[in-house]
Amino acid sequence: MIPEDGQAPAPRFGMLRTIALYKLVKVLLLLLAAYGELRLHDASLSAKLVTWVQARPSGLEHEVVTRALQWFSGLSESNIHKLRFVTLTYAAVFAVEGVGLWMQKRWAEWLTTIITASLIPLEIWEFFSRPNLGKAAVVIANCAIVAYLVWHVLAKGRRTASVA
C-alpha cells in the first residue's frame, strides 16, 4: 500500500541495516579481542595455549596462535593499555554507527560515511604492506559502503530539497 505522500514505503530490511549488521559484527569481534587480551594475562591460559599449539601439527592455526602469543608477550604494560583503549574506542564508534544506521538516522549515515572513508587510506596502506585476502575484503567492503552511503545521502538530500 502506498502512503498518502505518494512515496513507496521504505524496505523493511535494506542496505542500511546490512551495513549496520556489518558494523555490529565488528563491534563483537573487537569486544572478543579485548576480552581475549584480558584473559591472556592469566598465566595458566597462556600455558594452555602454548601446550595446545605445540600438540598441533604445523598448520595455519599453529602459526597464527604462535605469532599472536609472541607478539603479545613482547608488549609492554603501557602498550597493552594503549591496545585495549584503541580496541574499545573502535568498538564504541562502530556501535554508535551500527545502532544509528539500524535506526535509520541521518546523522549515522553521515558519521559512517566520514569515519569509514577516513580509514580507507590506512586500510589500503596496511593491505599493500602485508597483503592478504582478509585485508583485501575489508578494503573492498569499506569502499563499497562509502560509495553506497555517499550515493544514499546525496539522493536523500535531493529528495528532501525537491519536497521543500
Secondary structure topology:
Layout: H1 15-39, H2 43-55, H3 60-73, H4 77-102, H5 106-129, H6 133-163
Describe the structure.
With 164 residues, the protein is an all-alpha fold. The chain has two domains: 13-99, no CATH class; 105-156. It has six helices and no strands. The protein has helices at residues 15-39, 43-55, 60-73, 77-102, 106-129, 133-163. Helix 1 runs antiparallel to helix 4 (77-102) and helix 4 packs across helix 5. The chain is elongated, with a radius of gyration of 21 Å.
Task: Summarize, please.
The chain has 164 residues and is mainly α.
Structural class: mainly alpha
Give average pLDDT, whole number: 83
Give, in order, the helices and strands.
HHHHHH
Number of domains: 2
Sum up the structure in keywords:
164 residues, mainly alpha, 2 domains
